[in-house]
């Protein structure tokens, strides 16, 4: 694993050219996925690799994923507080799917802010310089507070990160604010609250459907929005209800 601001390209294989033309490859999208080892990011990576409109997917993370695919370029980057070494990797990208984050209580308040705010700002700075026309799909959270005055650190930090992205100058920014994200696949839950939510999910989904979203549905929506052809520019915010509506619009199985 790299340390400091160094990055290591783990898989630089090119797309097979036997069945597609150079022109077709040039028209395919180039996406970068940050946080592909996480619950939502792993699905985002999967759907990006499966999408025929995508030619190359670059995954950037602190460790190798153990995933092999002809479309995948994997970069190990040790320090997201300094993303300068990623400038060449981030050049000529069409979009970024940013799913990097940490659970409240799993790290200190200082670390939580660094991961939520500082890493987002630093990555977006380098991406904007390297690919100024890239779209940006950002995993925020329910209750994110753009006023940055919330008493809840998570809400305050997510709001701060959203504000920084809004000011970064990207042509299109998609902010996703999911409520409870259902993991879909079995996993070790990070704390008691998540274990409880998983246990009561069937009832919760029936009683309060707009307060839940499946991890795979959320991830695919985050990928699909940046692949849509549109002349619209600006920031688009999707609350949990909006994400579910988007899922239906994209004809995905809703939670």
Q: Architecture, according to CATH?
A: 3-Layer(aba) Sandwich
Q: How many strand elements?
A: 10
Spatial extent as radius of gyration: 18 Å
CATH class: Alpha Beta
Percent helix: 25-40%
Count every helix, treating DSSP H or I runs of 4 or more residues as helices.
7
Name the strands of the widest sheet in spatial order: 1-4-3-2-5-6-7-10
Q: Strand-and-helix sequence, N→C?
A: EHEHEEEHEHEEHEHEH
| CA-CA gap between termini | 37 Å
Mean residue pLDDT: 84
How much β-strand is present in the residues?
15-25%
Structural class, from helix and strand content? alpha/beta
Oligomer: single chain
Uncertain stretches of 5 or more adjacent residues: 1-25
Overview features:
single chain, 255 residues, alpha/beta, Rossmann fold, 8-stranded mixed sheet, two-stranded parallel sheet, 7 helices, 10 strands, 37% helix, globular
Would you mind describing this structure in some detail?
- With 255 residues, the chain is an alpha/beta fold.
- It has a single domain (7-249), classed as Rossmann fold, CATH 3.40.50.720.
- Helix content is 37%, strand content 20%.
- The protein has seven helices and ten strands.
- It has an eight-stranded mixed sheet with strand order 1-4-3-2-5-6-7-10, with helices on both faces. A two-stranded parallel ribbon has the order 8-9.
- Strand 2 (29-34), helix 2 (39-50) and strand 3 form a beta-alpha-beta unit.
- Helix 3 (109-130) packs parallel to helix 4 and helix 6 (215-227) packs across helix 7 (240-249).
- The protein is globular and about 45 Å long.
């Amino acid at each position: 694993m790299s340390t400091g601001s160094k990055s290591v390209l783990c898989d630089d294989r090119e797309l097979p050219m036997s069945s597609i033309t150079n022109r077709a490859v040039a028209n395919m999208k180039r996406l970068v996925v940050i946080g592909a080892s996480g619950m939502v990011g792993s699905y985002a990576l999967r759907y990006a690799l499966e999408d025929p409109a995508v030619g190359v997917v670059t995954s950037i993370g602190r460790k190798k994923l153990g995933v092999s695919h002809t479309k995948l370029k994997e970069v190990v980057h040790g320090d997201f507080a300094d993303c300068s070494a990623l400038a060449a990797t981030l050049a000529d990208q069409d979009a970024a799917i940013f799913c990097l984050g940490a659970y409240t209580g799993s790290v200190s308040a200082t670390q939580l802010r660094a991961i939520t705010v500082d890493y987002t700002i630093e990555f977006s700075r380098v991406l904007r310089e390297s690919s100024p026309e890239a779209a940006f799909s950002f995993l925020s959270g329910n209750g994110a507070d753009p006023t940055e005055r919330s008493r809840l650190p998570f809400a305050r930090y997510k709001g701060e990160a959203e504000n920084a992205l809004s000011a970064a100058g990207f042509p299109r920014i998609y902010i996703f604010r999911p409520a409870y994200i259902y993991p879909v696949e079995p996993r070790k839950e990070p704390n008691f609250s998540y274990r409880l939510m998983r246990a009561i999910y069937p009832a919760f989904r029936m009683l309060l459907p707009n307060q839940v979203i499946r991890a795979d549905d959320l991830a695919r929506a985050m990928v699909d929005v940046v692949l849509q052809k549109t002349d619209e520019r600006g920031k688009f915010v999707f609350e949990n209800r909006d994400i579910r509506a988007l899922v239906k619009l994209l004809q995905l199985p809703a939670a």
